[in-house]
Amino acid sequence: MQSKSLDRPEPGVELRLEIQALTAEHAWRLDHGAADTLHELYTRDGELLGLPPSDLVGRDAIAAWGAARVQLPRVSRHVETNHRLWWSEEGLRGTLYASVFRSETTDAVDTTPLMVGDYEDLYAKEEGRWRIRSRVIRKAFRAVR
């Protein structure tokens, strides 16, 4: 694994729990009407890439997207598993499998599995807290709408 070649220990239990709490909070905010606060989980220069219709670069862009997202009648659930962490030359990296279920109406009658894919993350410590520096969404499977 890359950690050994960088003379860094494998990410320990405490660090893993911190990062898992960060990613769980990210999913919860998306799924429970708090996308307008999602930008707080990113570094100032944070990026959310691969999100239709365009990439989001910087907290302001993520905040604007989140403010628009909470106005939608959308219901979603992000199910994230298989979290993997390692050190790279850029810093702490992680991947997660993500299954996303979504309905465009609040009654959630037309619920469809929207996507199964990977999130490729880079984390950075900013102001004493771990945050997402970059998240790239890689779709493996996507539902036709």
- List segments where confidence is low: pLDDT < 50 over at least 5 consecutive residues: 1-5
Mean pLDDT: 92
Strand order of the largest sheet: 2-1-6-5-4-3
User: Portion of residues in helices?
Assistant: 10-25%
Euclidean distance between termini CA atoms? 39 Å
Note the overall shape. globular
Radius of gyration: 16 Å
| Secondary structure tally, helices | 3
Counting DSSP E segments of at least 2 residues, the number of strands comes to: 6
Percent of residues in beta strands?
A: over 45%
Order of helices and strands: HHEEHEEEE
| Class inferred from helices and paired strands | alpha+beta
The biggest beta sheet reads:
6 strands, mixed
Short description:
The protein has helices at 2-5, 13-31, 59-69; strands at 42-49, 56-57, 75-88, 91-103, 112-126, 129-142.
Would you write up a description of this structure?
The protein is globular, with a radius of gyration of 16 Å. Helices cover 23% and strands 46% of the residues. Residues 1-5 have low confidence and may be disordered. It contains 3 helices and 6 strands. It has a 6-stranded mixed beta sheet with strand order 2-1-6-5-4-3, covered by helices on one side. The chain has 145 residues and is of the alpha+beta class.
